[in-house]
Amino acid sequence: MKKRIIFMCVAAAAVLMTSCFGRGNRNDRAAEETADAAELAAQPAVVSFTASATGVGPIQWKMAASDLPSASEGLYDAVEPYTEVLNFEGEESSYNRLRLMLGGTPVAIATNYDGKLGTVEIVAPNVASPEGVAPGMPVARLLEAGPTEWFNQDGLLYCKLGELMFRVSNTLSDSGWQKINAASALTAGDFADGSKVEAIVYF
């Protein structure tokens, strides 16, 4: 909404302004304000969530898969079960997973192990750690919060921040790994350009 500064004038000046700008401009401004208000009202409200050590909202690590609600306002509006087959060194393994969607976009992936959510990955940008770090943010924002315990597992890069685990773009340079081994702090320069926080993970 445009900010307008209204100058209080004497009656004679007010008459002059009216003659210069006329009713048409006032009507145009009123129409513009109405259009702006309508546009804001049409935009969906973004609901923000804070992740805890066990999950976010109704999505809780190790909960019974059957207890997961079919939707949670602002977090996800659909649950899509599917089976993923992966090949490890010539040996195939199948995994029953749940893809949680919001407006047609994946916001979380959970793996159903024996009826429970054994692993959960939150990729929704409106879910953040207590420090304000969320999926999709640049790695530099995560580094500012002071993550610890960097490690590589199955070709994926993880770190711990407080009680949460994050997966980040696996673009850490050799010099970055040397810093980790030496217990030195990483910088954004240790990662490739565009590296991001990919997910909040529970496993």
Q: How would you describe what is shown here?
A:
- The protein has helices at residues 11-42, 139-144, 174-181, and strands spanning 49-50, 55-56, 59-60, 78-88, 91-102, 105-113, 116-122, 127-128, 148-153, 156-161, 164-168, 197-202.
- The protein has 203 residues and is α+β, with helices and mostly antiparallel strands.
- It contains three helices and twelve strands, in the order αββββββββαβββαβ.
- The longest helix has 32 residues, at 11-42.
- A hairpin with a 2-residue loop joins strand 10 and strand 11 (164-168).
- The protein starts with 10 loop residues before the first helix and ends with a strand.
- The chain has two domains: 9-43; 49-202, protein yfey like fold.
